[in-house]
Amino acid sequence: MSLRQSFLMAIKNIMSSKVRSLLTMLGIIIGVAAVIVIVGLGNGMETYMTDSFKSMGTNLLTVTVLGRGSSRSVSVEDMYQLLDDNPEYLDALSPTVTYNGTVKIGSESLSSSVTGVSEDYLYMKAYEIDRGRDLSYIDMENRSKVCVVGSYISKEFFNGNPVGKEIKIGGNTFTVIGAMAEELESEEGSTDDCVYIPYTTAARLSNTGKISSYTFAVVSEETISESKAIIEEKLEKIFGSDSAFLVISLSEILDVMSQMIDIMVTVLAGIAAISLVVGGIGIMNIMLVSVTERTREIGIRKALGAKQRNIMSQFVIEAATTSALGGVIGIGMGYMFSEIATRVISVALEVEMKVIPTVGSVMLAFGISVGIGILFGYLPAKKAARLNPIDALRYE
Amino acid sequence: MIPLIEFRDLYKLYPMGDTVVHAVDGISMTIYEGEFVAIVGQSGSGKSTCMNIIGCLDVPTHGSYFLGGKDVSKMNDNRLAEIRNKMIGFIFQQYNLLAKLNVVENVEVPMLYAGVSKSERRKRALEVLSRVGLSDKIKNLPKQLSGGQQQRVSIARAMAGKPKLLLCDEPTGALDSRTGKEVLELLQEIHKEGNTVVLITHDNAIASKAQRIIRLEDGKIVYDGPAKGAPKQVSVEDGGEA
Ligand SMILES: Nc1ncnc2c1ncn2[C@@H]1O[C@H](COP(=O)(O)OP(=O)(O)OP(=O)(O)O)[C@@H](O)[C@H]1O
Ligand SMILES: [Mg+2]
Asked: In Å, how far from its chain's centre is CA B118?
């Protein structure tokens, strides 16, 4: 008897008692749907996080000077030396000075962030200049009071044409020399709500005058760990201590967080998979009942020449088909719930995070459900195959 | 000529508590191809037990059973299934059709296990169904047929695999006398075509239609000879306790 024959027989049997078959499959349906949604959620979270990190720059290394445990300090020249010495790893450098002065345009105060950076910073961040020009090396040298503004300020206060206009930062008058292209939605408080000034100017205006933060761009993200090591080595030499500074790589943080999400998803999917096992036990239970109910049928089939393996495969295939069908329904449900979850997240959390089921998880879930059918169908099938034909024929 | 069926000092014992029931108690007999044999006897005399052994549904406790010259008394479950499938057609008192399958599908079942191709199966099933006069009912489910029709389906099923031996356990037991007679006539025709038929009954009128009668009592043969002139009933006193 062919596999196809057994399969058709199984479908016929499943269809002949639909409600019961559906109830039998329920555990598998729930398990598969849950695994798919959970993996989809994890996948969505990872994509969302990667995207937001990418926009912050995964090619960047941030150096923060803490000064702890060391009396020495590092100069801007030291850092530029470091850049020049390692052209195969390090691509560009910008000291970053956060300036806490209030921004005023006319009589209006803004909460825009003001950062002192080098002429390479916008290039490192891959920000585009929309109008006017970028900061230049001359601006650094002269400690010019010039600035580049984000698209929020440009659009909101200068009708998109801010070049040559003046704004006040911490009481000093700055001339706008350039406007950046829109990064996000030009909203207040976003990356577009910013002002960049020369770091030399910022350092002089701030109380301490010290530069305690630097950003490096690496040549390639592949060698970011090596690049980080080079910087750490040099700084350790300068400070004579490794606790005086901190080198942070966004891509490393991203890696760690991705890993954590992976672990979380695996654990949650594992918990959901318990439902698959429960579903399998449900199938086994119904199959055992079914074997008892069909004792006479088994007896007749054996009398007519069915071998143990014919009966065996009939029941195993029936269990596997039931389970696989449950798996398919579960996959459908999983996609449906993923879609619903995406909408709920966007409405409730106002976050554009897509719950995307992965092909891998779908195939795995389907494979597992078929496997569970075979595994848990085996025992009842064995019981059926071993029935003595005379006893089975006599069974009422 | 090799007998089709040969029992050599065959026993089937069932332990019941401290005692042992001798359902078949040392039977030796031979049945040749082309015979029409009726096995008769009172209830509990061991007819069905004999039948199950002849049909390879059960194995004897002692003794040998040769079917077509092969000793099947020590064969395992799967070998017996194969032999049942190839050599024997069963006709049961309760028809034993598969309720979820329609008439043709039921007839096809033994051929399914014999590995006959789909088209060949259908062809042969339709042939035998027309032979038993049920060509117009092929798509019906068993429950949509009368008892006599169901028994004819089961005869078609038994014949479809072209077995050497047709085994019938009380084939007319659940039918009224008229349909019973029809079924019996069908069996007689099948026999005339050269098939071996072994039939179990406790109805003497039916047994008399056979060529040969084997009468059992308490698991032993008490008469084995031509149907004509067979004693109608062996007295209970002669055979001891019933
Ligand atoms: N599985 C079993 N376990 C114990 N005893 C059994 C078993 N099967 C049959 N017997 C006994 O064997 C004897 C013969 O039984 P069998 O069924 O062969 O009788 P029978 O001639 O077919 O009777 P009937 O005409 O009523 O069908 C009986 O005494 C019965 O109780
Ligand atoms: Mg009986």
From this structure: 27
Compute the distance between CA of residue B205 and CA of residue A298 in angstroms, rounded to an integer: 34
Q: Distance (Å, rounded) from C-alpha A327 to C-alpha A368? A: 9
The helix (H) or strand (E) run that includes residue A97 is strand A97-99
B13-44 per-residue burial string, b: 16 or more CB within 10 A, e: under 16:
eeeeeeeeebbbbebebebeeebbbbbbbbee
Strands B196-200 and B165-169: parallel
Q: Where are the alpha helices (DSSP H) in chain B?
A: 47-54, 77-87, 103-114, 118-131, 147-160, 177-192, 204-207
| Complex prediction ipTM | 0.91
A270/A152 same-domain check: no
Q: Give the bridge partners for A95, in sequence order.
A: A214
Cβ contact B78–A308 (<8 Å): yes
Residues of A whose CB is below 8 A from B143: none
Answer yes or no: do A219 and A88 share one domain.
yes
Give the distance from residue B94's alpha carbon to the nearest chain A alpha carbon, in angstroms: 10
pLDDT in tens, A232-254: 998 888 888 888 888 988 888 88
- Read off the pLDDT of residues B179-188 as tens digits, 9 standing for 90 and up: 888 889 999 9
Q: Which residues are paired to A214 by β-bridges?
A: A63, A95
Instruction: Specify which residues B223 forms β-bridges with.
Output: B215
A61 in any annotated domain: no
**Sign (positive or negative) of CA dihedral B150, A299, B41, B200:** positive
Asked if residue A220 and residue A86 are part of one domain, the reply reads: yes
Chain A residues whose beta carbon lies within 8 Å of the beta carbon of residue B86: 305
Whole domain around residue A84: which residue ranges? 67-92+213-243
Is the pTM higher than 0.90? The answer reads no
DSSP secondary structure code for residue A101 in this structure = P
Q: Find the length of chain B.
A: 242
Residue A252 in tokens: 């490393």
